[in-house]
Design a protein that fits this description.
The chain contains three helices and two strands, in the order E-E-H-H-H. It is mainly α. The protein has a two-stranded antiparallel ribbon with strand order 1-2. A hairpin with a 5-residue loop joins strand 1 and strand 2.
């Protein structure tokens, strides 16, 4: 609203002050525009998902990379007909592919809902119950630790110091006799 006019609370027409850098939402200078664009936060709910790499953190690398060769193998000297081998490969691959898609279509969304609810509850409990309990415990245990430390220094330190002085006069020598 730089340079625009407005009516104040007394009814007088006033001019809004002009900023050299422009409006904070639409800056005139480049440095401020770049600074604002760097600080832009991305909303987690509207971020784009990668439809090509669906496991970017490699969670299932060792679990579900099962191909035909990992399950069915014919050793040297024991081979079926080439046509049977090719048909078996195609049947295995296509069945695995489409059955996975069918199962994900049927159970994917309900399980995503269940896991979403589970992790929301887990997050809620962690934020609102676990961390405050731990913080409370640490604050309360600090007082107890001071009392415990005073008791140890009062009763145990003199006892152990006396025992140490008592045994400090004992000398041990080792002789090797041949």
């Amino acid at each position: 609203m730089s340079g625009s006019q407005y009516v104040d609370s007394e009814g007088l027409l006033r001019t809004a002050p002009v900023r050299e850098q422009g409006n904070i939402y639409k800056p005139h200078n480049r440095s401020m525009a770049e600074e604002l664009s760097e600080k832009t936060m991305h909303d987690v709910h509207t971020k784009e998902i990668d439809l090509v790499s669906r496991d970017p953190k490699r969670l299932n690398d060792d679990v579900v990379k099962i191909d035909f060769e990992d399950v069915i193998a014919e050793p040297d000297g024991t081979h079926s007909f080439d046509g049977i081998w090719k048909a078996s490969f195609t049947t295995f691959t296509v069945t695995k592919y489409w059955f996975y898609r069918l199962l994900s279509a049927i159970f994917g969304i309900p399980l995503a809902l269940i896991w979403g609810i589970y992790f929301a509850i887990l997050s809620f409990l962690h934020i609102w119950a676990v961390v405050p309990c731990i913080r409370s415990y640490l604050i309360e245990i600090q007082c107890i630790s001071r009392v415990y430390s005073i008791c140890i220094h009062t009763f145990c330190d003199p006892l152990f110091e006396a025992i140490g002085k008592m045994f400090s006069t004992i000398r041990a020598t080792v002789r090797k006799e041949i």
